[in-house]
Amino acid sequence: MTPILRPATLHDIPALREMLVATWHATYDATLGVEKVNAIAASWHSPEKLSAECDAALAEPEANAMLVAEAGGRIIGTASAHFLPDSFLELARLYILPECQRTGLGKALLAASIARFPKARTARLEVEPRNAGAIAFYARQGFFAVGGGKACGGDVKASVEHLIMEADLPLLALRPAEDRDAQDLFGLLTLCFAEYPGCYTDPHDDMPDLVRPGHWPERAKNGQKLGGEFLVLEDATGRVCACVAVDFPAPGIAELHRLYVRPDCRRRGIAEALVRRIERIAEAAAAGRVILWSDTRFIGAHRLYARLGYVQGRERRPLGDISNSEEFDFTKKL
Ligand SMILES: CC(C)(COP(=O)(O)OP(=O)(O)OC[C@H]1O[C@@H](n2cnc3c(N)ncnc32)[C@H](O)[C@@H]1OP(=O)(O)O)[C@@H](O)C(=O)NCCC(=O)NCCS
Asked: How buried is residue 208: exposed, middle or buried, by Cβ count under 10 Å (0-12/13-18/19+)?
């Protein structure tokens, strides 16, 4: 039975609490101990607290969301979110009943709660550091660990360690490119280049990296491996609809490459989220600067780079390719 995802109402609170307590014991008894889980359930999942949160979500849907997943009259999952304008979308309490996990419901509830806040640009959440399953799940959805601390949930008595994870929005479930993506990648670039007269894809001479994209990190310059990552985004049919890559040509410098979004997938913030993903990878590698070269004709992309803080340099380099390309350089200090 396909679950219905909907806002929680006060009638749901007893069933929601029961589901939360059962899922908490299944998730945390082994690491936190039964006593602590009972203490947390009494505090964080008290009927009063849940009812107050439910009221707040119903009264201020532009700032709060409390969703439930219902199947066959049972509450089998929940997700909450709080939007702090000019700051984060805080995601809280994403729980799926154990027997309903790994069926796509967590992903659906996460997407549904984020979709309620289209203006949010960054999502943030806290996760118990030993909750390896949840951490793997969030990483798969595009979240990065950005820090940690104590007192998850803000209640000192029931405090637990937490890891803070963030993701740029929209959520992009990116994966490393594989060699089998070559055909899709050439298709993607051909569609993008077709918007610019005189711009062609030439797999033979111009783009050896696209022939074996799975080998991106092994590329070398002057005998030094360039490293980095080539990431692809799939559409609902599994075709590659966007890509981006990064490598490290010199110490402290990350170079962004191959930013392409298929025309039918534009205007959803995908390119911006891809650039920000590369910046996070660069920061994690202790790079202080991201550089890139962009074809002089790609004016739309130049506007995006400027908006994201990239400064165009004075250089203009000819590539000597079949498209007679010349490129501008852009830099951003991180
Ligand atoms: C973590 C949780 C919310 C994930 O929800 P779910 O419904 O089980 O996950 P989904 O079926 O939507 O999985 C989505 C993706 O994440 C991956 N994933 C989910 N759980 C995973 C795990 N334990 N290990 C590795 N990957 C996992 C899935 O493989 C899937 O990948 P795909 O999109 O490539 O197919 C759910 O398992 C849960 O409630 N766990 C216990 C409570 C909890 O830890 N909550 C988080 C508190 S911060």
From this structure: exposed
> Which ligand 1 atom is at minimum distance from the Cα of 132?
23
Residue type, 96: I
The length of the chain is: 334
Contact 84, 125 (CB under 8 A): no
Compute the distance between CA of residue 64 and CA of residue 57 in angstroms, rounded to an integer. 5
Tens of pLDDT, residues 84-104: 987 799 999 999 999 999 999
Contacts 24+ apart (CB under 8 A), 220-225: 221/249
3-state SS assignment for residue 208: helix
Distance 228 CA to ligand 1 centre (A): 27
Strand pairing class (89-96; 64-71): unpaired
> Residues near ligand 1 with C-beta < 6 Å?
23, 27, 94-96, 101-107, 127, 131, 133-134, 136-137, 140
Whether the per-residue pLDDT at 242 is higher than 90: the answer is yes
Q: Which atom of ligand 1 is nearest to the CA of 105?
A: 7
Q: Residue 147 Cα, ligand 1 centroid: separation in angstroms?
A: 21
Q: What's the rounded Cα separation, in Å, for the pair 277 and 264?
A: 21
CA of 93 to the centre of ligand 1 (A): 13
Atom of ligand 1 nearest to the CA of 100: 7
Residue 157 has pLDDT above 60, yes or no: no
Please give the mean pLDDT across all residues of the chain. Answer: 92
Q: What is the set of domains in the chain, with CATH numbers?
A: 4-168 (3.40.630.30), 174-333 (3.40.630.30)
